[in-house]
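Box 4.2: Ligand-aware structure prediction
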Amino acid sequence: MKKVYIETMGCQMNKSDTERMLGMLSAFNYEETSEPKEADLLMVNTCSIRQLSEDKAFSLIGTWGKWKQSRPDLVIGVCGCVAQQKADTIFKRAPYVNFVLGTHKIYSLPEILKQVEKGEKVCECTETNATEDGQAKNYGIKRVKSMNAWINITEGCNNFCTYCIVPYTRGRERSRRPEIILKEAKDALDAGFKEITLLGQNVDSYGKDFTDINYRLSNLLSDLNSMEGKFRIRFVTSYPTDITDELIETARSLDKVCEYFHIPMQSGSSEVLKKMNRRYDRETYAKIVKKVRDMIPDVTITSDFIAGFPGETEEQFEETLTAIDEFALDYSNVAAYSPREKTVAARWVDKYIPEDVKAERFQRLNRKVQENCLKSNLKYVGRDMEVLVESFYLRKGKHINTGKTRNNKTVHIPGDSDLTGKFVNVRITGAKTWYLQGMLHETEK
Ligand code: SAH
Ligand code: SF4
Ligand code: F3S
């Protein structure tokens, strides 16, 4: 057996690809190691959403290149979004890299390794409009040990928001076949996973591209919901204006589908949203959030925001702060704008916001997110909630079980027995910014 180490950067898409590549590699006599120095094959699954993510990848590759000076047999591979975007120019910058594998054809990995063994340098970054479902059938998926199995249902994105590189690194949107998704879900449940999260840049578009069947996200949720056993279902990410009434109604009525929507808003200002090429304004976003909240009690709604988009004025930025309050967003990911190659907004150099202003807005945005997170958590003090326990550990001399509620709140539950993998009923006794404190009900002890 040879050893492989994969460093995964970026989003769940990459994490999911890594699990697939590890599944493939295990069929070719590679076992995973968590110790890069022990590996025969080193791979980095890269992210290019911001310049910083890309720089991080090149810095790691550089370190590995140095190791190779004393270990010439070491094989180094670069995959993921930076690979797709930079293709064979990576060899110029890092000549010690053996192969570059883009995001479109990860199932070429075994073939690539054969060529690398013959001493060739290989770059496979061909774009396709097809999914890799055919090959996916032939290999297992080596999932990270946890309660939650992530299953991608769409690949790529057609939205071309002016700041975003994803359509260039992941290609056009395409849906995976329902039978493959349902099989992957069944395998995960049989293996003991208790939560299935359906994954896509825009999950509400799922199935739009099928020509032979009429099958959308609501159908998929219903089919998953009817699978046997106690488990939870989630889906991310939702594009605001693609959330249909039917989807909200389906999510509300199916018992396994959790009360949780991730609906990135990106900016609270309608003018900025227009420049971002988002297809909604502040009022439309407000209506969607209201509808989801009205139809689904206790729903958690989270968002993403960008601080310092080109041309963003102080007033427009403040509209983002007020949006978080007005829509009572439970949590938001926050990023400072980073210009990305090929994207439209990157050309607006004369409108770039100075770094210090961007950093200051980023911090104010973070403080607002924290404030609202605590506010949102305080609502649940005194309530009874179901928690799926995900881990058990010792902290400051006390044992704690940590898990998630259906609406995706983290709960810390003191107690001496390990309840990992169990659904327990908990009384919420306190709230902090990032988590709730809970106590087991008598019957659960
Ligand atoms: N499909 C999702 C987003 C995927 S990218 C959606 O439409 O919301 C994840 C997040 O990264 C985005 O929501 C955005 O907030 C952030 N992001 C994307 N490009 C960025 C850039 N150039 N600079 C800073 N943040 C960016
Ligand atoms: Fe990027 Fe916009 Fe697509 Fe999300 S919807 S992945 S932000 S282009
Ligand atoms: Fe994800 Fe980063 Fe690519 S966020 S889709 S890994 S650019």
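In the box above, the bound molecule is FE3-S4 cluster. The CA atoms of residues 78 and 443 lie 51 Å apart.
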